[in-house]
Model the fold of this input.
Amino acid sequence: MTILGTPEVPARIAIVGSGPGGFYAAEHLLKPEHPCLIDMFDRLPTPFGLVRGGVAPDHGKIRNVTKVYEKIAAREGFRFFGNVRVGQDISVAELQQHYDAVLFAYGAETDRSLGIPGEDLQGSYTATSFVGWYNGHPDYRECAFDLSGEVAVVIGVGNVAMDVARILAKSVDELKTTDIAAHALEALAESRVREIHLVGRRGPAQAAFTPMELKEMGELALCQPVVSPESLVLNPASEAELTDNSVHRNIELLNEFAALSDRGAARRMYFRFLESPLEITGNGRVGSIVLGKNRLAGTEPFKQWAEGTGESVSLPCDLIFRSIGYRGIPMPGVPFDEKRGLIPNVEGRVKGPEGVVPGLYVAGWIKRGPTGIIGTNKPDSHDTADRILEDLAALPPCPVRETEAIPALLAARNIRFVSLSDWQQIDAAEQARGAAVGKPRERFTRIDEMLAVLE
Ligand code: NAP
Done:
């Protein structure tokens, strides 16, 4: 009987998605004690998922985690196949012919919707599209955001909402030395946005943003945070939530903001709590948003929810960003939980209607939903990798084991896959373009531009 994961028969593992979830799984699998060959696929020519396409450009230090991923990619037994759409260019069934195990770590690439009237009016945008646009993600290259109005509303008070609000609030001088996409910098330079309203449906103690991100809002060159002291009065259950360090620090910072005197800043960021969007109105485009007033219901700390009071206010505005969370999309041929927007699994083993599907695994946001910071993925992906290693003895070896079979199959389909060394060339070209304009990199924002570097 063939034993997988031995020097004679290294386990062949495909990882679909090259963000943190995929890389931390690869890190754990690529150890000499259980020989594995990893092929990592990404639909883009560029690796690193949301670290490249999601992390805000002014958070360069967070982006530096890619150095860790570069070291993992440099290990023996690792190959990158960028510009390959699993599910379209190659099917999951085909991957199963070539790999003993297939691990899905392709994240949550779409957004959740509010389901309210007027959501799709012109001027109402998803946070995901704005984030992708300022980060130069090819999917959002052709997006256009009308920044000619003065009042912007951001729905949701998570860290993505904070990123969106901060980028709207920052001056060009604060952004021009980051790796923000050139087209975004150009548009933001013309922005007339003066008021940004961040709207949370629950209270300040329940806000999903973290203290580091909140603190930054007090350090912006052109923008002053505005918080009403009344909005910071906590009920007993919320008081009890102050035992959480992050909640405690958030409330402390919000109180500092509430005590600030008006410094006549050119821009203002209003923190609003206990309000839910009910309707977006306007004549063909966004004109105002109706916000229903809420109270907190439930008495158990950390389990309170928003309940409408029946009152509402109408806030005139010019643009709206919906930032209420990401959502995963299905992979053809793989079970999917439509309600939760993820691949159903038991501890990282994919679960179908008839139970666990042998040889299929998940990691990252497509495993657990769009929660947690980059580092959350490390233990989570290591756990899934451990399940793969545990299962190796019982997994049937895949029938096609030649390492050159996959590149040959892709080439036969005229798919210009991007290898690790190809990516390194694209990376070097982006950095050289950046150096010329005083930025860490100037990204290529179209796939054909990236591939042109390799000709
Ligand atoms: P998130 O943290 O889940 O926040 C979503 C926000 O939307 C919450 O305030 C939530 O309120 C609100 N919301 C959900 N449904 C709503 C509705 N129907 N109406 C009104 N509000 C609604 O999601 P995220 O901001 O997209 O971030 C995703 C993950 O990435 C998070 O774990 C985040 O920390 C991480 N991230 C980290 C960084 C960083 O470290 N700098 C940057 C970006 C993202 P409720 O709490 O009431 O549900």
